[in-house]
Amino acid sequence: MKFSFTALLIFFLSIASAQSVKSPSEEIVAYFGLNKEGKPYYSVTYKNQPVIKESYLGFVLKNQGTLNSGFTVTGTKSAVVNDSWRPVLGEVAVIDNKYNELSVSLRQESTGKLLNIIFRVFNEGVAFRYEFPKQDKLNYFILKEENTQFNLTGDHKAFWIPGDFDSQEYVYNETPLSKVDNEALDLDNGIAVKSIAGRYTVQSPLMMKSKKGLYINIFEAAVKNYPVMHLDLNPETFELTSVFAPNAIGDMAYLQTPAVTPWRTIMVSDDARDIVAQKMILNLNEPSKIEDTSWIKPMKYVGIWWEMHVGESTWDYSGTQDASQKKFTKKKTHGATTENTKRYIDFAAKHGFDGVLVEGWNTGWEDWFGNWKEEVFDFTTPYPDFDVKEVTDYAKKKGVKMIMHHETSGSVANYERRLDRAYNFMKQYGYGAVKTGYVGKIIPRGEFHDGQSMVNHFNYVPQRAAEYKVMVNSHESSRPTGIQRTWPNYIAAEAARGNEFNGWSNGNPPAHETILPFTRLLGGPMDYTPGIFEIKMSHYDPTKTEQVHTTLAKQLALYVTMYSPLQMAADLPENYEKYPDAFQFIKDVAADWDETEVLEAEPGDYLTIARKAKGTENWFLGAITDENARKSTISLDFLTPGKEYEAVIYQDGKGADWKKDPINYEIKIIKVTAKSKLNLKLAPGGGTAISFIPLN
Amino acid sequence: MKFSFTALLIFFLSIASAQSVKSPSEEIVAYFGLNKEGKPYYSVTYKNQPVIKESYLGFVLKNQGTLNSGFTVTGTKSAVVNDSWRPVLGEVAVIDNKYNELSVSLRQESTGKLLNIIFRVFNEGVAFRYEFPKQDKLNYFILKEENTQFNLTGDHKAFWIPGDFDSQEYVYNETPLSKVDNEALDLDNGIAVKSIAGRYTVQSPLMMKSKKGLYINIFEAAVKNYPVMHLDLNPETFELTSVFAPNAIGDMAYLQTPAVTPWRTIMVSDDARDIVAQKMILNLNEPSKIEDTSWIKPMKYVGIWWEMHVGESTWDYSGTQDASQKKFTKKKTHGATTENTKRYIDFAAKHGFDGVLVEGWNTGWEDWFGNWKEEVFDFTTPYPDFDVKEVTDYAKKKGVKMIMHHETSGSVANYERRLDRAYNFMKQYGYGAVKTGYVGKIIPRGEFHDGQSMVNHFNYVPQRAAEYKVMVNSHESSRPTGIQRTWPNYIAAEAARGNEFNGWSNGNPPAHETILPFTRLLGGPMDYTPGIFEIKMSHYDPTKTEQVHTTLAKQLALYVTMYSPLQMAADLPENYEKYPDAFQFIKDVAADWDETEVLEAEPGDYLTIARKAKGTENWFLGAITDENARKSTISLDFLTPGKEYEAVIYQDGKGADWKKDPINYEIKIIKVTAKSKLNLKLAPGGGTAISFIPLN
User: Fold this and answer.
1) First to last CA, chain A
2) Which of A85, B6, B78, B488 has its CA 20 to 30 A from that of B341?
3) Is A159 within the bounds of a domain?
4) What is residue B1's predicted lDDT score, i.e. its pLDDT?
């Protein structure tokens, strides 16, 4: 009796106020309901299988009660949307935006407060956001908690990193959910500032695979005026609850009605390729706010950067600051000299790169890190050996664009108060792009990188930069959530563990680059800085054991598998000059695309992507694997039928191995058509890169 | 036996490491010593009477121990200084800087940390500061506490306001120290944001009078990169201990060696006039950092301001925001219209005022206060009925300078990130001065007006403004401590309870203006906004009972007794036009001076000052009293011997009384010389203003 009564009650309550909305494909269904206490919940199914079990929704306010129970549904609204738009820069020329929408209007009877929940169901997954409409009972309010649950159906395999309010630069762990444990992690990983939120807190995007082979991803889109969502896991029930960085005094977010939260997203498919290819995060963001986007261009660049990471030179003038964790015997000198910059400009001009980044050009680096110092950089004072005018004039003459560097050392207060001066300085000398950096504990003190204030800052900089027609590439920012649709000058971000960690820490294991497209890259392009040819740091110092955890061929493949309209050729010019045949791929590969085909994908294992370069008939293919060697046969049916192409294949040489023999590569040139099939052979930690240039 | 042993021990210890330094007059002596635990202490005598009994000195650091005991003296250094300098704007043409200095170098034996204490003894009092020299054992450090004690000798009468980290806009309390009690205060006083630090915490400057008739004042000078000092009183022992606003996470100050604290000051005299006339606070600040100061000018101004305070118009365009606490029946309209501004410009031009302030000219006022809102004003967008170009062109044609207004509503984050745009906007339209405002809880949230970050902001704005040749008048800032010597474009501040409170709150009692010169004004000029002729608010609405707590004549006298190079004629043009004879004094009075004579002074009771206008032979005199009528005879021996002057005397009329008959004044014109004596007759809450213009 007891069992059936409970079952009946749930059934009855669900019926009483249940709503549902399906994806256009009808494979995904989102359900919404209120339980008997008026607590809102939702659930998700995929092909009739549960993906998210009934999960509660709601908030705790500061001094204004809660918004998580006592609701009644006062109305619902449906919409069907099917349109498309053209990104300024992107993986494809046209993005389809197709979803079914359900808006549920709620009223909390005891207080009269109103809350709406909006569901959008795409073929890729479910998104929902909370909306606080303008209302008499709620104007200004402070959130203490958003308690959005994602009640998972089992002990899925998860690709997770710790929920850290200050950093996402972790190596991914691949374990069942039940084995998530931040306390068991080795934190000697090269990350400068860590603020792990809890023992079982993980970051989103959280990529998972169920035992039945469903690929499930929990993420968010359009994070604006709101902190970043992290996920608190109950490792026994597999229930995730949203958790957010507080501000300095423990508040989560300051809002005024009308207000919306970011979109909470649940992507699901039985084909891993669908996750990599998704466009729903972009679709959930607002269209470009920049009218004239003609100055926003893809960019391949080189720069004075890796030489500091490998300990060949320093950021600071006095020669003490490189990224090496070892003591070198050789004397180090400042990297950002006029002379050295000209060398990079010459190299960029000779090999057709668009830009040159120079880090360490400005005063402050002698004492820039680790002391929570407010006034480190002024962003306008070069070191005496860096002549800004001479350098920018020279670059202009050579047809190369200089990329500005603004490291803030986390002192956002200092950066914001100097922002206009910094950007005016850039315009004075013709810089059209800036790389920003946020290494260190945030100032205003007490704030986290992932808090509401910092999210606002990270969104504010591209907005302000747009007024100067400057493109922004942010490092150590909160991770993007599709905001580059709205501010397309925000061309790339770091916000994950980049290639640099291979230079001076335990590095990025071979699986790393096969996971990022299922996690970090869902939110936007990453400035991963691939293209390291001198794989082993012993090249610079025989006592060093650090190395890049890939083969050279895989470094090439990353230009295709890691989408970004901003791509660095990160290694030193002299290293590229030693391997001119392999370097040719980096010179040839595009950074902006009309078409993208995800050919093969399995998170943590492998990824193969082909892309068609913007405005051309040229295709480029990248295939990568994890620590395991891999063979596969791919059909070239993405090529235009009837055309013949010259395919230049850059692949791992015989016996190549990321650890034992990483620079071993071979280049084959063959002719192919859309009917051809190719056998790919990837070494452990290896990859293949191919360019397809039409012959007719 | 026991008593004499203790006495002997103290004597011995004092001798062991005691140092002393005298004022040039030899009347004031500061003593320094270490007790047997190596705790540093000091004491002060005046004419051989104890003023400060032995009082400990020291710090608590965050995670780096304490700096308050275990010291030995490693060296001492003496200096005798006697020089002078010329302020850009001031009460006198030349300021003498004369003091004896003692520097004591200390070493904490257990840690090796170094700390210096520097004493400077002027004829006006003792100053000392802590110096953290550059050293191996201390580089970056965080202060949790500075525990500087001021161990008073008895239950002095004190003029005190609560130690509030967000406001100094209190009415002064005049009680013995033993009766200080913030919990007994009526806090319905019109102050918007209050953060009282503790039950017995009071603000500095703390003015006191001992039972033996010594005037003692505890204050500080040169507050830079350091929070404002408040004073925690032990109401039983009369021991004061310094206390400071923490930042959002509870830290007091972030410093790096070499660093210094502000100067802690103890002024003492048996003549109250010496306190009012002191120059040691300025002398303890650094010389001007502005080379070309030719653009820094005294300024008398009118403006669209008081009309909002009395409820005749509003700051906001939609007509809802005035400062009235009553409901009016008449419809209110926006004050800052082009037309109204032109009226003020005409008035200023006609009567010889330098500037016109316009508040409420920019968008944001509809919802500017009380919601801890970050983005309220952008400082560059006028309301549609305020044509900036038309107004500034018109002012230029009329030879009048426009004064910009930047209310931040406490959102310093927003102001700093827009600062350059705001100042560029000003330069575009020719504004050379700005009034800033900080009404509201500070953003970054968790910071206080008196914390280190905000002190830095308040010092940063004049520094940045100087680059635009803009003068700054800050309201609701931390109170000045002589920083206008270093940044002479920081011409005035509010930072105390101004005249405006008389318009819409319980107001400022008649004694108020006799106390400010012993407290707030010691740190720098105040934009008190005197000159209210329509004393009673019932003038505007018969239901109102608020009023200015002075007679009209006292409003005139304030232009002399309240030193400021920036002086507002705060009342409405139409009110001045009703009393043109009295208005003449405001038109005549200077705002910058070559000489100043404090003729009579008693805090809380009365004050009479004569000043000689810069570069002229004109003298102006102001005499004010508290709620008591007052008669006195003053000698005019400050006038140049042999010259004859026409003295225009603006005095309270017969039967005048601040409450019963405040507008009752009379004007007498007589001829006087340096040999003349004048009988002053001040009504309850009254005053006398006199101009002396040489006839030969």
Assistant:
1) 77
2) B488
3) yes
4) 37
